Amino acid sequence: MDRLQVTDLHVEFGGVRAVDGLSFSVREGEILCLLGPNGAGKSTTLDLICGKTQPTGGSIHLDGVEISHMLEFRRARRGVGRKFQVPSVYKDLTVDENLSIARSKRPGIWSALTRFALTDSRETEQILDLVDLGAKRSELAGNLSHGETQWLEIAMLIAQDSKLILMDEPTAGMTIQETERTAEIFRSLSANHSLIVVEHDMSFVRSVADRIIVMNRGAMLAEGSIEEIEANEDVKTAYLGH
Amino acid sequence: MSSKFQFELVALVIFAVVIAFGVPAVMNYDGFELNTFARYLALAIVSMALALSWGVTGLLNLGQAATFGMGSYAMAMHLKLRASSGLPDFMSWNNVSELPLFWVPFNSLAFTLLAGLLIPAFIGGLIGIFMFRARIAGVFVAIITLAFLVAFQLLVINQQGLTGGQNGLTGLAQMTLFGWAFDPYSMGFYYLVAGCVTVALAIGVYLTHSKFGLVLRAIREDADRTRFFGYNVANYKTLVFCISAALAGWAGMLYTLVLEFASPTYMGVSFSLAIVIWCAVGGRESVIAAAFGAIVVNMLEGRLSDIFVEGWHLILGVIFVLVVMFMPRGIFGLLVEGAQKLRTVGRARPGHAVEPLSTTPLETNQER
Amino acid sequence: MDVIANQLFAGLSMASILLMIALGLAIIYGAMGVINLAHGEFVMLGAYVTWALQTHVGIGILPALPIVFIAVALVGLIVEKAVVQKLYHRPLDTILATWGIGIILQQLVRLGIGAESRFVKGPEILSGNTEIGPLIMSNYRIFVIFFSIAVLFVTWRLMTRTEFGMKLRAVIQNRDISECYGIESKRIFSITFAYGAGLAGIAGALITPLFSTIPTMGTGLVVDAFLVVIVGGLGSLVGSAVAAALIGEATALFSIVINDTLGRIAVLAGIILLIRFRPRGLFPTETRR
Prior knowledge:
heterotrimer, A: alpha/beta, four-stranded antiparallel beta sheet
């Protein structure tokens, strides 16, 4: 069964159709890359899936359940995780505390009341080692460098362990080595997570994408493997103009 | 266990020891002085209650005095009934011929004690649900709670026959529990209040260092982000409002016991501001610091207002503005920064690796 | 029927006073995002300056207005430069700091002049009433209503038609870019704050014949004026005017049905509900940050 099924999705902002009749699906364990020129509606699509924005039409099913009118936290509990374009970690909290927030298998109040903030766990340690932040556990996230902040947010999404992870430009500002490392992590994540990745870095897309969707003006322009997309005339026109 | 948690536990123990042994000794076990200090301790609870919602969660509740007043009146109503044979005196002066229905259960002490906690908690919860479901945040929380406070105080003053109006509730009996009358000038009474403060602070310290407290701090920084991790932000905020209101109610009950009357000025805008000042001076991030702030400012007020009878409020205003501008983290912030400097010096010496004490800058994220 | 007509007029009079206080607040909040809780004390200062001018110098309310405006605007300017400017990045803290300043101003006046209430005579020309059938309207109140409308109009012109207004709007929209074009946002903010304070001062001067002048007179007014600003939509001048009219009239009419206090409580409750369901007010502006 498809993990995510988006059908005829619409959203308008003050008369502008940011997403206009978009339909696609994501399978279990698949990495889907969203490409498209600026303003094509990629980030808006992620916003609609995670609940930041309410659609004006269409439906979104996660594992067969309609989620398009659920509040954000309910979608998160059902298994939608989101990384934003601007790295958004909690700058006033330590790295450890950030991960503790992200590890939200039991997000209810009662469970939060009966637990200490930081419980040493091997899982946290493993995740932090994976992104090389093991030595900075008690550092404030606000003191991390830009690259480290990106890693921390990726670590938080791994810790959140959502079924479907939405990544908005995860490699922005990263060095080539860091980007390769991210690609590796994403591929290992795809063993038991589905990912939708918005990305401009084509070499990164090439190395992780199972499938690509190119968007333009809120609608799907092309869909297929990387080879198919690179050969597509419509895509060339959309990117390069006439 | 984090270093911050250890730090606060140590502070809590020191605090408890000082108010249990140090303070009575310094005051020569003088009943009058201890009563005054018990008053400060009661106010410490309401200040720390504000730290939970304001300092930890970033919700500036300007209506804290209203929930304090509810607790205070709950206790006063019970003691008034105890003191009156039949109808309380002010009711007959206002041509109220029969005890109003909502007064009747306050004949029971058990009900009163519960009501003093639960009524504020319930009201706090209602306001919380009302605001936070609609994602009201930042400045609007301050304005709505302020408007509520003004309306509530007007109502209490207006309903003279039911509440004693402008005069409040005076001529109260002493509370008796298991045959023991609470003389507010006795040692036993002082220890009751001191015990309450310690327990309230222990609850506060636990809450701030539980996962619940961590989520609250995350909400203060970025409520939206926190939703995407699956936390029901509205419920978290509502609960912290409830807890804070219940603690304020508790403080109010003690305050009535200490002063032996209840007044509508407890629900006034200026009292609410005073709570904010204590909390800011002590340090809004830490419940112990906020409690300490209440005690320090009130002691200062006690001493200075004798010397500068007229100018005290002016001095208080100046102190407050200076604290907000230059010491936004209060006395607590000074201590933390001092400790950090010491540690950096310590770290410079070889073979002396020390974990830095992590701190929380106070730039709270505000949704508008 | 007579009662209602007279209450409607009383409501309008109330509204005109609220409007003048709220205008200053609205400008300051709209431009700087600063909630100025010392605003009530600016009103109080205006009232005391008027009183001082009348009792010690013998200048009546009307000729005193420009002096009051300048005096209170100066106080505002000092407060802005000394305190508010340092807190631009901490909006929640400006509430507290200005609240503290409010206390300081109030106490200074209480210590310097005394806590007892002072009385100011209304202008001779405007004494007496205008009667239309059963409706009895004090001339002075009529004057205040028209004056507040004039102040609204002048302020609106200032914001939309002058170079200062243009710069201010530029700063509101994007502070950094405006700075790049050589607009000193700090100066613009200082002037805006001073102007807002000056308006509060004028409001204070005009209410002296209607209210008793005491050091705490501002505290109650500022809460109401704030609610006007928020109900109207932060930063919207027209919104503030409509909201002032609504709140003034609602208070006046409620107090016929129930008593004064309960009327005020009902209005407060209504406002809380309104903020809950329309947090951006009746006339939200698009340009706020």
